[in-house]
Design a protein that fits this description.
Length: 122
Amino acid sequence: MQTAIDGTWLMVRAELDGEVAPDLVVEKSAIAFAAGRYEVRFAGEAADRGTFALGASGEHGTLELHVLDGPNRGRAIPCIYQRRGDRLRVCYGLDGVSPADFSTGQGRQRYLVTYRLQSVTA
């Protein structure tokens, strides 16, 4: 069954703990969601992969990543997401706590990313 976020998404902006990501990182990063699995790619190479589960929570959805491969292997990363047309905004709780809003700040261990849809997964 296809989900609301299935597809390949190109990063257009990212912020970690209040710091904007360098252009090089943004230009070379993408994430793909399909059939309950996800894969983060950097410069076309898989950097992180695993499974995901969606949920709902008021005005945004919840997303939990279960990392099977990559630097975060063995971790569960709770997130919130919001999709509007061809844009997907995800706030990752890198400290293991689900974010309450789409914001970052020094020491908060939040990764906020905006993606643009490149292609839909069939």
